[in-house]
Amino acid sequence: MHNPVLLGADSVDPPPEICCSEQGGIGAMAVRRAEFEEVVARNMPRLHQMAWRCLRNREDAEDAVQEAVMLAFRYVHKFEGRALMSSWLTAILLNSVRTQIRRRPRCILLSLDQCFEEDDSTYAQFVVDPRPTQEQTLAENQLCKLVRQITSTLPRSLRLALQLHHQDELSVKGAAQLLGVSEAAIKSQLCRGRATLARELRRTLGISAPAMAAECCGKKKVATRDNSARAN
After folding, report:
1. Could you give the CA distance from residue 44 to residue 59 in angstroms, rounded to a whole number?
2. Rounded CA separation 61/51 (Å)
3. 115 pairs with which residues across the strands?
4. N or C: which end of the chain has fewer CB atoms below 10 A?
5. β-bridge partners, 122
6. Range of the domain at 174
7. Nearest CA to 64 among 89, 84, 83, 86?
8. Where are the alpha helices (DSSP H) in the chain?
9. What is the pLDDT of residues 155-204, one digit of tens each?
10. What whole-number distance in Å separates Cα of residue 155 and Cα of residue 151?
């Protein structure tokens, strides 16, 4: 009597129905992956535009799209086909956008070297230090020193009227009471003192009368706007 020959487990052929099921699953997955790649390639510009509209930041939008595509590729085998694959991919992108928003800090930090979306201008080009530069401060100090020097050479009545009204900020009435003269006399002294001071400044600085008048008018307009803003 012959003993039966035992075959190894790897030599046993699987049932034909299992082979057909596995081959069908692999084929369906290949078709699904090909469909997914086609949908992604066709909708990529729209996805980027949608992410940018929600996030308003190019880098965050690119991260959201990349994360959504990778997540969809990982779970494409679970896509049941109840809706369009593009709609399914859009829903995943919106979830990725929400995740990007939750990751953001409460205050948005912007780099001064960051460019605007519309052109190549940077934020640094629009940030202006309101404080005067060293050159402007030096020029203003020199001008104040020159004004004091010229004022000291004026007649005593004109010099006192200018100092009380402009430096000590007394009104015309207050200066008149302090000096014991009429208000008309103070106004006359102020007018003659300003004219003399302006004439000596033009002569010393070599500035023509029209140019200095235009500069003074510009300063008066700025001062008027500043006073109006403070009043409001």
Report:
1. 15
2. 5
3. 122
4. N
5. 115
6. 135-208
7. 89
8. 16-55, 58-74, 85-103, 134-152, 156-162, 172-179, 183-205, 209-231
9. 988 888 888 888 888 899 988 888 888 999 989 999 998 998 888 888 88
10. 9
Using the structure block, give the residue that is written with the tokens 């679970």. Answer: 78
Host H or E run for residue 119: none
User: How far is 163 from 28, CA to CA, in rounded Å?
Assistant: 96
Contacts of residue 111, Cβ cutoff 8 Å, sequence gap at least 6? 123
- For residue 124, being part of any structural domain is answered with no
> Tokens in use for 170?
């007394």
CA-CA distance, 18 to 45, in Å (whole number)?
Answer: 42
- Tens of pLDDT, residues 38-68: 999 999 999 999 999 999 889 999 999 999 9
Is residue 152 domain-shared with residue 199, that is, in the same domain? Answer: yes
Task: For the beta carbon of residue 163, count every other beta carbon within 10 angstroms.
Answer: 16
- What is the CA 197 to chain-centroid distance, rounded? 45
Specify the CATH number for the domain of residue 23: 1.10.1740.10
